[in-house]
Amino acid sequence: MISLLLIALLNWLLPVNFPQTTLFMALCGVSFLASGLIGLISLRAFIRVKTTVNPIKVQSASTLVVNGLYGFSRNPMYLALALLLLSVCLYLANPWTVLGVLFFVLFITRFQIIPEEKALMEVFGEHYQAYRKRVRRWL
Fold first, then answer.
1. C-alpha dist (Å) from residue 41 to 44, 60, 139
2. C-alpha closest to that of 64 among 6, 136, 114, 132
3. Which of 28, 35, 97, 128 is most buried, by CB atoms within 10 Å?
4. What is the largest CA-CA distance in the chain?
């Protein structure tokens, strides 16, 4: 994953580390656990309605998932990945590494989420449009 490599590179090139306090480690743990929990709950929602989780084959989606975490965020799986990257940044305690998370959010939005949204509009039409108006893309 490019974002993880960017985080490692930033940590290496700009070694400005805060002390790894108990607070940083607690936030790191919370972010890591939240990432896993959000990711698993999101995946389970797709499995429950027997629709594809493959982000490349959005057109083969049979059901639009709008309940559970998908009632708060249209992209909780990507949110989980961002939280996982954030947990790495917190572990490293280097403020520059957060740029890697920002890069991930911008990159995944531009090159994955926006094309997914166009495909979902084609598949689900007005139902997806109403969902988009009701639920934010990230949070």
1. 5, 21, 16
2. 132
3. 97
4. 51
| Helix-, strand-, coil-residue percentages of the chain, each rounded to 5 | 75, 0, 25
Q: How far is CA 1 from the centre of its chain?
A: 13
Dihedral sign, CA of 90, 95, 99, 102? positive
The per-residue pLDDT for 101 is 98
Question: Is the Cα torsion angle 24, 30, 34, 36 positive or negative in sign?
Answer: positive
In the chain (139 residues long), the average pLDDT of successive 10-residue segments reads: 94 90 93 98 95 86 94 98 97 96 98 96 96 97
Q: What ranges in 49-75 are assigned the alpha helix state H?
A: none
| Residue 119 CB-half CA count within 13 A | 16
